[in-house]
């Protein structure tokens, strides 16, 4: 538990908990990831079902679907992990294949309906990554701070990084 005292307020921030299936040190077989924006959770499933749940945060506070480049919203849909690597700012990063064919279809439909400007761009560079060094507090405090990516505490990302291969299916929903 961490207490943060501001000029006129006092706030207690409790560390969010990772939940895991008992007696299984690692997932079994092929894994997939479900990211639930409403619950601020990343869930891992394997061939036996649910394996683990990790706390996450996103970009924009609205939690709506990504509409255009720069809106800081996290896209919804089905994606795959296309790369994994260390990152200078955010510890480690697992890139997603956004925009997908489904993403482009939603983007074009929104343009046709006038929901987004005709000259808008779809954006890209969406990933699952860690936080700044020693800044895991943003995850525990539900602080949405990314440009549309999904952020985990660094120690949680370290764990996931060991058993989630490139090609893993990632579903993001609200």
Task: Describe this protein's structure.
The chain is of the alpha+beta class. Helices cover 15% and strands 33% of the residues. The strands form two sheets. The protein has an eight-stranded mixed barrel. α2 links the parallel β9 and β10 (150-152). The longest helix is centred in the middle third of the chain and has 12 residues, at 101-112. The protein is globular, with a radius of gyration of 17 Å. The two termini are 28 Å apart. The mean pLDDT is 92.
Q: What are the salient characteristics of this protein?
A:
174 residues; alpha+beta; eight-stranded mixed β-barrel; 3 helices
Element layout with pairings:
Layout: E1 2-5, E2 10-13, E3 19-20, E4 32-36, E5 41-46, E6 49-57, E7 77-87, E8 91-96, H1 101-112, E9 127-129, H2 137-140, E10 150-152, H3 154-163, E11 169-173
Rg, nearest Å: 17 Å
- The largest sheet has its strands arranged as 4-5-6-10-9-8-7-11
Judging from the principal axes of the Cα atoms, what is the shape?
globular
Q: Give helix % range.
A: 10-25%
Biggest β-sheet, characterized? 8 strands, mixed, barrel
| Nearest-integer average pLDDT | 92
Order of helices and strands: EEEEEEEEHEHEHE
How widely separated are the two ends?
A: 28 Å
Give a short synopsis of this structure.
This protein has 174 residues and is an alpha+beta fold. It contains three helices and eleven strands; from the N terminus they run ββββββββαβαβαβ.
């Amino acid at each position: 538990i961490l207490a943060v005292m501001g000029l006129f307020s006092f706030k207690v921030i409790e560390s969010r908990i990772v939940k895991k299936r008992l007696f299984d040190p690692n997932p079994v077989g092929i894994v997939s990831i479900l990211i639930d924006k409403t619950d601020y959770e990343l869930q891992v499933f394997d061939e036996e079902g649910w394996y683990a749940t990790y706390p996450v945060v996103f970009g924009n506070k609205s939690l709506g679907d990504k509409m255009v480049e720069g809106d800081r919203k996290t896209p919804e849909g089905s994606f795959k992990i296309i790369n994994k690597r260390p990152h200078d700012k955010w510890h480690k990063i697992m890139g997603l294949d956004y925009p997908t064919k489904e993403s482009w279809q939603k983007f074009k439909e929104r343009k046709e309906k006038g929901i987004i400007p005709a000259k808008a761009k779809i954006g890209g560079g969406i990933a699952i990554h860690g936080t700044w060094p020693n800044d895991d507090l943003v995850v525990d405090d539900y602080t949405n701070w990314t440009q549309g990516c999904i952020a985990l505490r660094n120690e949680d990302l370290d764990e996931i990084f060991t058993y989630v291969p490139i090609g893993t299916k990632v579903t993001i929903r609200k």
